[in-house]
Design brief:
single chain, 142 residues, Arc Repressor Mutant, subunit A, two-stranded antiparallel ribbon
Length: 142
């Protein structure tokens, strides 16, 4: 197995570990999907956005995003506001409930990630972060 294959395998194994330890942990994220977390993180940065921009960010079709948005709206995590100039355009934003839920999940995830990385030195964590940032910058949309 060459280095790229080993890296690919290791990244998938790490993803599986994180999903198992964080998202599937019974006290953490059982009540929220990975897609819902992605939407919350995006809206936390964007403050407000259209379905198209959210689906573009998540790299999924708007029709696949609709059920996610519907679930989050039913949970009172999101607000929908029509554009005053174009009623066909709907802006989606986090509600206070959504923001509070996101912060709570962030704390829970942080706790579980600390457990995963507890045996890794700060130096190695910084190096890993540096490498991840290099990769992310290389593939950022321009």
């Amino acid at each position: 197995m060459d280095t790229n294959e080993k890296l690919f395998s290791s990244l998938f194994n790490m993803g599986r570990l994180i999903r198992r330890e964080v998202f599937l942990h019974e006290n953490c994220c059982q009540d929220i999907s990975h897609s819902e977390i992605e939407v919350m993180l995006f809206l936390n940065e964007a403050k407000s956005s259209t379905m198209r921009k959210i689906s573009d960010y998540l790299k999924i079709k708007p029709s696949s995003l609709t059920p996610v948005i519907e679930r989050m709206h039913k949970k009172k995590m999101l607000a929908r506001n029509s554009d005053k100039k174009d009623r066909r355009t709907v802006y989606i934003s986090l509600t206070k409930t959504g923001i509070k839920s996101m912060e709570n999940k962030r704390k829970q995830v942080h706790y579980h990630l600390k457990k995963i990385f507890k045996k890794i030195s700060d130096k190695n964590k910084k190096e890993l972060l540096k490498i991840i940032d290099l990769i992310a910058k290389e593939y950022e949309p321009r």
